[in-house]
């Protein structure tokens, strides 16, 4: 099965994933950030961190 590679833009952990499409998301196993696939070129992922808004529960 072919795989794609990339690096987390936050912690620089090397990632290897099964085939993904642009726009799909994944989590970094090291820092647990949610990352979006911005592009794929020659089997290398271009990843961007997604800003996660936490809910304000009024506490």
TrEMBL record:
Q: What is this protein called?
A: Lysine biosynthesis protein LysW
> What domain of life does the native source organism fall in?
Bacteria
Record the organism.
Streptomyces uncialis
């Amino acid at each position: 099965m072919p795989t794609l590679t990339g690096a987390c833009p936050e912690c620089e952990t090397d990632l290897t994933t099964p085939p993904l499409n642009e726009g799909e998301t994944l989590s970094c196993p090291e820092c647990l950030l949610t990352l979006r696939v911005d592009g794929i070129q020659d089997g290398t992922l271009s990843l961007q961190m997604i800003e996660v808004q936490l809910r304000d529960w009024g506490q």
